[in-house]
Amino acid sequence: MIQRFQDEVAIVTGGSRGIGAAICEKLAEQGAKVVVNYVKNAGAAISVVQRIKDKGGEGISIKCDVSDFNQVQEMIQKTFAEFGKIDILINNAGIFPQAFVEEVSPEKWRMAIEVNLIGTFHCAKAVIPYMKKQGRGKIINCSTISAFLPDVGISAYAAAKAGITNFTRVLAAELAPYNITVNAYAPGIIETDMVRDMIVERGDKQLKQIALQRFGKPEEVPDLVAFLASKESDYITGVTIPIDGGMFIVQNPWRAKKF
């Protein structure tokens, strides 16, 4: 049986854990050759690659700090040298600093922008020439529900992700003539290491804002990402799709109830 991404090559930034790892494994299961990007935890990235290979897939890990454009260019070049093409870019890498504006240091605020927003720009910019040359491509960015429903204590994260949402629209318009689509997925509260402290601190209150009355699982995100990366979404570009359990439709002072 022909797989969805047979002979296609995908780069997933921040692919060593959480949602990124789940995306890597999902794309590989459906036939993609996957580059698992990481910045610190080589062991975790190697474990993701091994799980891919154990299931008969193909993948490699590449260390790269997406906030450094030179490193990003090297990652793209290594990917092309290894596989000869790049069909899909998933800009998933991100960090989640939590502090009120008056308490967060300028350095940490700037780092959140550099990794989340500028890192997305770096990777997209570096991969565009390759996708243009082959006449097609898929760029999928990670936004967040916080880009639309900002919460206190996450100013840098919310600002960066709001930037990604608008960057997605602009880039989609620029690349449409080259048959390259650009879309984004916007997770709500997904149970990963990145947000575990927040869930512990105020999870009970946040559940009241979610229509489905539960937090998401990392394995629930990749199907949406795979759809956006597939030919099935060829007529979709410039959109950001929430995957949040219904945080858009349930806001205080009321919440959904059974009738």
Termini gap: 45 Å
CATH topology: Rossmann fold
What spatial form do the alpha-carbon principal axes imply? globular
Q: Give the biggest beta sheet.
A: 7 strands, parallel
Number of domains: 1
Strand order of the largest sheet: 3-2-1-4-5-6-7
**Unreliable runs, pLDDT <50, ≥5 residues?**
252-256
Q: Would you tell me the overall average pLDDT?
A: 91
Oligomer: single chain
- Secondary-structure element order, N to C: EHEHEHEHEHEHHE
CATH class: Alpha Beta
Describe the structure.
With 259 residues, this protein is an alpha/beta fold. The chain has one domain: NAD(P)-binding Rossmann-like Domain (Rossmann fold), CATH 3.40.50.720. The chain contains 7 helices and 7 strands. The protein has a 7-stranded parallel sheet, with helices on both faces. The N and C termini lie far apart (45 Å). Mean pLDDT is 91; it is low at 252-256.
